[in-house]
Write a structure and sequence with these properties.
By secondary structure, this protein is of the alpha+beta class. Helices cover about 35% and strands about 30% of the residues. It has a five-stranded antiparallel beta sheet. The chain has a five-stranded antiparallel beta sheet with strand order 2-3-4-5-8, with helices on one face. Strand 2 (about 20-25) and strand 3 (about 30-35) form a beta hairpin.
Amino acid sequence: MRWSQITEVGLVRSENEDSLLVCPDIGLFVVADGMGGHQAGEVASRQALVYLERYLRRELPNTADVGKLVVEAMEQANRHVYEMACNDANLQGMGTTVTACLLSGDTVYVAHVGDSRAYLLRGNTIKQVTDDHSLVGELVKNGSITEDLAQVHPRRNVLTQAVGAMTNVEVDLYKLVLYKGDRLLLCTDGLTNHLVGKEIHAIVSSVDTPDEAVKKLANAALEQGGTDNVSIILIEI
């Protein structure tokens, strides 16, 4: 397995509210995109990932159901961030997307809340694994608008779910069997606001290493305007 990560503040925002977590020793890879004023978004994304790692490291040796465990970890991280916001007026209203991949043998469990994404690149294809928890994502899902229209929709950044925003959260869980040569890409919407799936696939396929791929993807988002923080993890099986 090879992997690489990158995060960029972009060309418009002054702060980077994204967070990345890479723990190859336990097969955990996570991206998060925080929201909230006065740096609260940065706190939300960082704290969610810190709690997620701590919980999984503690409980993984004791579980036979990895999928159930990663959902529980997300639910507990949600409660942790929510309680932080309730106890500090400066953090009220904060929340974060979280898209987490946990590899176990030839299987990956993807736990997801928000509009960051996981993609599976296999051969000449790219598949968006996760569904966006956003108003625009719902419109795309029910066929009301196309993916191209979603890219420019004025309410494309309005989330329907976020970790830490409410007491409880509904976590999507996806289970995939992986094969040699597969690539998993995790990213915040700073990438997908500018590039669609086929463009992501073309860039990743044009280079030889994950390091080159994430740099080229980030640069492409910046060249298209860099309107948000951009964070990417690419894992090659």
